[in-house]
Amino acid sequence: MAEAKMIKLRDVAEAAGVSQGTASNVFNRPELVREEVRERVREVARTLGYAGPSPKGRLLRSGKVNAIGIAAAEPLSYFFADPWARRLLTEVAEVCDARGAGIALVSVAGGKHLAWSIESALVDGFLLRCGGRELLVEVTQRRGLPFVALSLDTSEPDVPAIDIDDFGATRMAARHLLALGHRRFAILGIGLGPGPGRVPPEEVRATRFVNVRERARGYWAALTEAGIAEDMVPIHAVQNDGGNVGAALDLILAAEERPTALLAMSDLVALEALKALEARGVRVPEEISVVGFDGVPEAAESIPPLTTVEQPYRRIAERSVSAILDDDLPAGREILPLTLVVRGTTAPPVSG
């Protein structure tokens, strides 16, 4: 059996007795074509089985897609499962909705499909949820489209990035607890290995993750101002998803001088800590205060509601969308401040 002929625009134009330019206008700029001609061309197209011009081809010819790709090294489920990613995606979606722009989610989990995913996405540019330059940045640079790195955890002066003031935020969190009268602290640190276990300060400084180093440095800066030395503040490694926070807390709570305050490097970890403390009969904030980091919606809904430093999600979304759609890329790393949100997990320590 002979293969069916693919109907093209020129076939429609010939059958309708019009030029190919007129036929193209019927589908792309119908206001330029008389109504009777439009109807004739469309009727011929229906008869021949012509579905219309390729959206991809039309968009590529126009030079603009009016869509943004959001790429991460994790599976697509990460965008919906992780509280930080979910909140940021929501804000970006609302900003894009207001501009009539679209979003394409791109996962490069597994590595081997990384180049294909980045190179095939039909977008004007990318927002990269980066775990480091080697994961996403170099492939995106080869694609030749503009991009902005979000949560870039390496020092890359030539990479346009929109980031947050990790140092200032954690210093603010620690100062809040100091102002309440706390003097015994422990830190739940992410990006420091699988844990659980205490991590020496020199290992924290040596981690390749800039955001982890900066958060630790912010805690230390505030505590040092109050005369509390770094080696007096244990940093315990926990998994990023909070999976072993309970085991870390068992070590922390077994200390001869139990901390009266916990500083968590993410809200996800802080929320897991609240659950683990409740399961162990430790009251928050009566026996121990907890401060998180991120400002995810779940922080306001926990029992008690979590004190945290909140990222400027809407500002990050507006700035990053504008960077791509308005050709306004940042020159290097652009740093945005966070806000301390005081809720029910912090209070003065019980004396004694």
TrEMBL record:
Residues 7-62 form the HTH lacI-type domain. The keyword Membrane does not apply. One of its GO terms (molecular function) is DNA-binding transcription factor activity. The keyword Magnesium does not apply. Keywords: DNA-binding, Transcription, Transcription regulation. PANTHER family: LACI-RELATED TRANSCRIPTIONAL REPRESSOR (PTHR30146), TRANSCRIPTIONAL REGULATORY PROTEIN (PTHR30146:SF138). This is Transcriptional regulator.
